[in-house]
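Exercise 7. Given the encoded structure of a 214-residue chain, write a plausible sequence.
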C-alpha cells in the first residue's frame, strides 16, 4: 500500500517507519523541519520518502492522521483534496494544555472528523497505544501470542485497511464496533496515556493493559 503520514512526530514517525519496514510505500509529512522528515525517511529505508501533506495524500491508499488536535485544520488544509481516501485517525482530541479531551462522552474525535472530511473514509486506530511499545511489538510479531489493538468506524473498506495495518505492525486487530464506540475508546486511550506517561514503567504497564483478557 501507499501510506501518507500526516504528522510525523512520536506516533506518526514510528508507525511510518514500521509500515515501510513491513513493505509499504510511505511518505512522511507534516513536521516543523523538512530535515527531520528526510532523516525519518532515510532511517525507515528504501520504501520511505519525505514530502508535503499534499504529496503524502496523492495516490495514498491510507492517510495516518497523527497530529495534536489543534493542528487538524492546518494539516487537512495542506493535504488538499482527500475525497475517497481512507483516513486512519490516531489523534486524540486533547485541549491546548493537554489536560483533557476537548470532545468526549456525547461525541468523539472520530465522529467530529467524519463531519469535517465528509468525502473521506474515516476509521480510528493506533490511538490507544503508547508509541514507545511499537518497535518491541513489531520485533515480536512472529510470536503466536500477539497483543491486541482495537479499531472502530463505520466504513467497511477503511476498517479492513486499518485491520491490515494493525496486523502488519505486530498486533492482533480487534474490531470494537461502529464510529460512536470511539467515545469510549478515546477515553480509554487517555487512561492508557496517563498510565504510560505519568506512572513508573508506564509503557510496559500500558502494553500489558492492551493484552488484558488474553
Ligand atoms: N505519542 C503517542 O504515544 C500517542 C499515542 C496515542 C495517540 N497519540 C495522539 O497522536 C497525535 C500525535 O501525537 P504525537 O505524540 O506523535 O505528537 P508529536 O510528536 O508532537 O507529533 C505531531 C507532529 O505534528 C507536527 N507539527 C506540530 N505543529 C506543527 C506545525 N505548526 N507545522 C508543521 N508540523 C507541525 C510535529 O512537528 P515537530 O516534530 O517539528 O514537532 C510532529 O511531527 C496526538 O493527537 C496524540 O494525542 C499519540
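Solution.
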Amino acid at each position: 500500500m501507499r501510506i501518507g503520514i500526516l504528522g510525523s512526530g512520536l506516533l506518526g514517525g514510528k508507525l511510518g517507519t514500521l509500515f515501510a519496514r513491513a513493505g509499504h510505500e510511505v511518505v512522511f509529512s507534516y513536521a516543523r523541519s523538512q530535515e527531520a522528515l528526510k532523516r525519518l525517511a532515510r532511517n525507515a529505508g528504501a520504501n520511505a520518502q519525505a514530502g508535503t501533506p499534499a504529496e503524502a495524500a496523492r495516490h495514498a491508499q491510507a492517510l495516518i492522521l497523527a497530529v495534536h488536535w489543534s493542528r487538524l485544520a492546518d494539516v487537512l488544509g495542506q493535504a488538499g483534496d482527500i475525497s475517497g481516501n481512507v483516513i486512519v485517525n490516531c489523534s486524540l482530541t486533547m485541549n491546548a494544555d493537554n489536560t483533557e479531551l476537548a470532545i468526549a462522552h456525547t461525541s468523539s474525535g472520530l465522529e467530529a472528523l467524519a463531519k469535517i472530511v465528509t468525502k473521506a473514509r474515516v476509521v480510528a486506530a493506533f490511538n490507544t497505544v503508547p508509541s514507545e511499545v511499537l518497535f518491541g511489538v513489531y520485533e515480536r510479531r512472529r510470536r503466536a501470542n500477539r497483543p491486541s489493538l482495537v479499531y472502530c468506524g463505520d466504513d467497511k473498506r477503511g476498517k479492513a485497511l486499518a485491520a491490515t495495518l494493525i496486523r502488519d505492525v505486530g498486533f492482533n486487530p480487534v474490531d470494537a464496533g461502529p464510529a460512536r464506540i470511539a467515545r469510549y475508546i478515546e477515553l480509554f486511550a487517555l487512561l492508557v496515556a496517563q498510565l504510560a506517561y505519568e506512572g513508573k514503567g508506564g509503557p510496559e504497564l500500558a502494553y500489558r493493559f492492551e493484552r488484558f483478557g488474553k
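Remark. The pocket of NAP is lined by residues 7-12, 30-33, 36, 66-69, 71, 90-92, 94, 127, 130-131 (CB under 6 Å). Students should compare their own answers with the one above.
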